[in-house]
Amino acid sequence: MISKPGLAAILNQLSPMYLLLDASGHIERVGSTLQKLRPDQPLQGQRFLELFQLTRPRSVSTMSDLTARAGAVLHLNFRDAPATGFKGALVPLPGAQGAIVNLSFGISVLDAVQDYALTSADFPVTDLTIEMLYLVEAKSAAMEASRKLNMRLQGAMIAAEEQAFTDTLTGLKNRRAMEFVLDRLIAGTGQFALMHLDLDFFKQVNDTYGHAAGDHILQHAARIMLDETRSTDTIARVGGDEFVLLLDDLTDHSRLDQIAWNLIEGMEKPVNYRGQTCRVSASIGTTVSRSHDRVAAPNMLHQADLALYAAKKAGRAAHVIYSPALEPAGPHEPGLSA
Amino acid sequence: MHGLINKAVQSFVVLTYGEDRWQNVVSQVGLERPDYEAMLTYDDEQSGDMLNAVCRELDRPYGEVMEDIGTFLVSHPNLESLRRLLRFGGVTYVDFLHSLNDLPDRVLLAVSDLRLPALDLREHTSGLYTLTCSPGLPGFGSVMVGVLRAMADDYGALVMLDHRGQRDGCEVVSIALVESSYAQGRQFDLGARTG
User: Fold this and answer.
1) What is the CATH number for A82?
2) Is B190–A141 a contact, with Cβ atoms under 8 angstroms apart?
3) A209 and A96 in one domain?
4) How many domains does chain A have?
5) How far apart are the C-alpha atoms of B148 and B152, rounded to whole Å?
6) Which residues of A touch B37 (CB under 8 A)?
7) How far is the C-alpha of A30 from the C-alpha of A51, rounded, in Å?
8) From the CA of A75, how many Å to the nearest CA of chain B?
9) How far is residue A270 from each of residues A198, A258, A265, A319, B134, measured CA to CA in Å?
10) CB-based contact A142 B111, cutoff 8 Å
């Protein structure tokens, strides 16, 4: 039969976080790593259940309660700070001589190595703690690299999406974005208006003063449209000097007429570009969705087109709201001209 | 080639010689993008061209550049996490040397698609070792010379290292451990966490 000191020496080599308890539940011997956690407080001689609190199972208050749990997983922690948590198992010694309790840090090992400045010498060679710490660090480094890549990719994606939906000259939406919003408005229950605005005399400005002046006029027109509409409205440049405005939740004809005339007045104010005075105007065709109609996007664009054509024919610098009377005589197939 | 390797070479050039020199490499090779992504994979042939271009730009032989990259990987403060991962290999330099056989597997545990050539450490007499690097990554032996030299400093060991050239396609490095605790090494704290 091996002596208790002999047993303690062997245990310490295999498992330096062991405790040898006597029959009354006091600590007779303690492993070197476990003792290292409380350097100023000899654990030997203390009562096990006064030093540690059992969190699972909770109903353990005596040594006999404890030995009855032999073989089960014990969850416990130090009663004083730092209240490091442990997993443990108890094995009773033959002849009611006490018990061996073996502890491990479990998942709290990351905090434990920091709190107690443990080194690899504090863990038995068969223990996988060092490998686990290695993996945690390696995983964190790899995750960090992946996270940085993801952030760069996300930034690039947002920039690409913005570009794909934006007219780079004016900063307005482009045709793709307009079609996207129009489909959404049609699918929704709201009523809305679609304005098709075409600049008048833009070609003359371009031909007389050059493309830079033309670009300047387009940017100026974009600003006027932004100023005269709400932030919830969608303004898109859909062609060289053509714009579509989608005005959500706005179907009142007199209100639309007022907005259109504000736009036309704004466009007609002379613009100074490098000492040259440029003048343009605008014609606008508007159509209004009615929720009881089963509208389709090409249909609405077609109606706005007809209204715009009527405005141009009326001598430009005009606003016309679509009515069925504008449809050309004879059968027509809605949508084909859009 | 794995982006981590390409990125390491880029970091080495940028942090040691400056961004301008790296831009020269980029335009020499005609890389589409000036920055490598650590978590992507790149064409092997183009990566080889990039390494050759680095040597031309720095006007130094291939082996020397590879060795410097190895030293850089361990000793540059920006790559502290890599030094720490290597230190997990063992408490002493000798432990570390013996852990090299496991290095490719350890790397795979961390980054599952980064395959390094197999490493084989043999001890001949006490303190005399050879490290055989399998083919697959030209210059890997030289990189290891740089790594081993910097790790010796890290552990405070005194070693003599010699790249013995190739044998059966494998690069062979001889290691003579003169003194395992020659100087005070750098601290390795298990619980320290690097950003």
Assistant:
1) 3.30.450.260
2) no
3) no
4) 2
5) 6
6) 149, 152
7) 13
8) 23
9) 17, 21, 10, 20, 77
10) yes
Q: Do B191 and A117 touch (CB under 8 A)?
A: yes
Catalytic residue among A241, A248, A252, A293: A241
Any domain includes A198: yes
Q: Which residue has the tokens 């395992």?
A: B180
Full residue range of the structural domain in which residue A228 is found: 173-326
Beta bridge partners of A287: A194
Which pTM was predicted? 0.66
Residues A83, A215, single domain; the answer is no
Q: A69, A84, A108: which is the final residue of a domain?
A: A108
Closest CB to B189 among A110, A117, A146? A117
Q: Show contacts of A59-65: CB within 8 Å, 24+ apart.
A: A62/A25, A63/A21, A63/A23, A63/A24, A63/A25
**Over 90: is that where the pLDDT of B153 sits?**
yes
Indicate if A241 belongs to the active site.
yes
Distance CA B194, CA B175 (A): 30
Q: What is the pLDDT of residues A225-262, one digit of tens each?
A: 999 999 999 999 999 999 999 999 899 999 999 999 99
H or E element, residue A299: helix A297-313
For residue B159, which of B187, B183, B179, B186 has the smallest C-alpha distance? B179
Q: Which of A137, A148, A152 to mutate to test the interface with B (most CBs of B within 10 A)?
A: A137
Complex ipTM: 0.78
